[in-house]
Amino acid sequence: MTTAVIQALATGLPAITTDHSGFPDQIHNGKNGFMVPEGDWKALAEKIIFYIDHPETWPSFSAYGRQLMVEKYDSKPLIDRQVNLYKRIIERSPVTQQF
Question: What is the pTM assigned to this prediction?
Fold first, then answer.
């Protein structure tokens, strides 16, 4: 999966992507962007035209997308989760239980 969608959303850009790979986890259809079926160029064109015709939706799409990415990918919670995972692994390790 590319990080382009995550980076776009994190900077407040609404996105249009396909329902391929990990994108469904990033795009909440109609809230921070749109997902279209892979290979469906008509659906893609419709969503591009929607953005052009409805610029008033950009601020809410942008805010929602940015908030979602901050919640999912902010480095502090990610680091905390990683440290907690390591602690659990170390606590269960047979090597540390010998000491």
Answer: 0.68
